[in-house]
Amino acid sequence: MLRWKKSLTFRLPGLLAIEGFDEEIVETLRNRARDAILTMAIASEEKLEEVSDDMRNLDGVDSRYARKLAEAGVTTRDDFGGTCR
Fold first, then answer.
1. Cβ(68)–Cβ(79) under 8 Å?
2. Burial class (CB in 10 A: 0-12, 13-18, 19+), 3
């Protein structure tokens, strides 16, 4: 599971200091940000599921590295070998 930094949390007093922002707008922004982060996390996990078992079992390939490779379109050992040319 991905771990998101706490710095992504919007602080209510800070946003309320912006002219024209009320609590309803701030809450809407927070909800949209939360939804966007959740969508990105789900998409990242789905990419990880595309990685073949032989690729996952390759020495030095942990889930974080496998996820990055999958995001670049490298999901099999053959794909990985093709990047070395």
1. no
2. exposed
Give residue-wise pLDDT tens across range 43-57: 888 888 888 988 888
- Report, in this order, helix, strand and coil percent for the chain, each rounded to 5: 65, 0, 35
Helix (H, G, I), strand (E, B) or coil at 33: helix
List the one residue out of 3, 10, 55, 59 whose CA is nearest residue 34: 10
Instruction: Give pLDDT tens digits for 14-46.
Output: 778 888 888 898 889 889 999 999 999 898 888
Phi first, then psi: give them for residue 9, nearest 5 degrees: -75, 130
Looking at residue 76, its amino acid is T
pTM above 0.70, yes or no: no
Rounded CA-CA distance 73/79 in Å is 8
